Amino acid sequence: MADVLLVEDDETIGRNIQAALVGARYGGLWCRDGATAIEAAASPCTIDLVVLDLGLPDLDGVDVCRAIRSRRADVILVILTARDAEIDVVVGLEAGADDYLTKPVATTELMARLRAHLRRGAPRGQAPARRAFGQLVVDEAMRQAWLGDAELMLRAKEFDLLARLVRISGAAVSRTTLMADVWDQNWHGSTKTLDVHVASLRRALDRAALAAGVPAPVVETLRGFGYRVKVLPTESPRPTDGI
Ligand code: CA
User: Fold this and answer.
1) Gap from CA of 199 to ligand 1 centroid (Å)
2) What is the end-to-end Cα distance of the chain in Å, rounded?
3) Burial of 42 (C-beta count, 10 Å sphere; 0-12/13-18/19+)
4) pLDDT at residue 189, rounded to an integer
5) φ, ψ for residue 8 (rounded to 5)?
6) Cβ-contact 78, 117 below 8 angstroms
7) Taking the CA of residue 55 as centre, how many other CA atoms within 13 Å lie in the half-sphere pointing to its CB?
8) N or C: which end of the chain has fewer CB within 10 A?
């Protein structure tokens, strides 16, 4: 079963979430401040998922988020923010969070979200084929992607997003479908998470394109619908001077 690191200074909220985690047979630990959480996430351990409250007594929650992400690229990071703190959500997602919930958090919703994330993160029984789209190669079994000969450095959700976008090469995918397939089947909330992840995916594609010396695939916004990936043809090699 998965191990969850809970970072929450509020005793009542922390106790409720911890009870739900134990009830669902998750392992892990509960930290009440940011410094302890960073230490716990950095130590060799089996943490699969972090639930991080952004309002902590010692450190800025966004800094804690960034610190955990820089130490653990593989972990799923879910942040808890105060209601209406939209700016916190965007900053938190940019600092490496995969998902967020606003307080007050309903533990049933939190648990449903954690289950969905952990299910998706688990190794798949059937390895899908490696998929190529132009210079872009996505291997869902290995959870790796390349552009030309440069490997794309992607966080878990950026990878899932890219994999979903290229599953049917070049086809447009609606926001609803992306939210359902990459985040949660029963998503009714804001889709800000999606926009922030698309933005970071675009940056990762640009970096890889620069490294590989090939044109960057474009994640095109289709207003009022969703997104689609377009690859540009590679310039045909210049004729060499005949020697
Ligand atoms: Ca707090």
Assistant:
1) 28
2) 64
3) middle
4) 59
5) -155, 125
6) yes
7) 11
8) C
Please give the DSSP secondary-structure letter assigned to residue 147.
Answer: E
pLDDT of 2? 86
Segment 9-26 shows an average pLDDT of 94
CA distances from 40 to 9, 31, 32 (A): 15, 8, 11
From 43-47, 49-53, 77-81, the region with the lowest mean pLDDT = 43-47
Q: Which two structure tokens, joined as six digits, stand for 72?
A: 């653990």
How far is the centre of ligand 1, averaged over its atoms, from the C-alpha of 8 (Å)?
6
Distance 108 CA to ligand 1 centre (A): 19
Which residues surround the ion ligand 1 when the cut-off is CB under 5 Å? 9-10, 53, 55
Q: How many CA atoms lie within 13 A of 94 on its CB side?
A: 9
User: pLDDT tens digit string along 67-124?
Assistant: 999 888 778 899 998 866 777 888 888 888 988 888 998 999 899 889 888 876 554 4
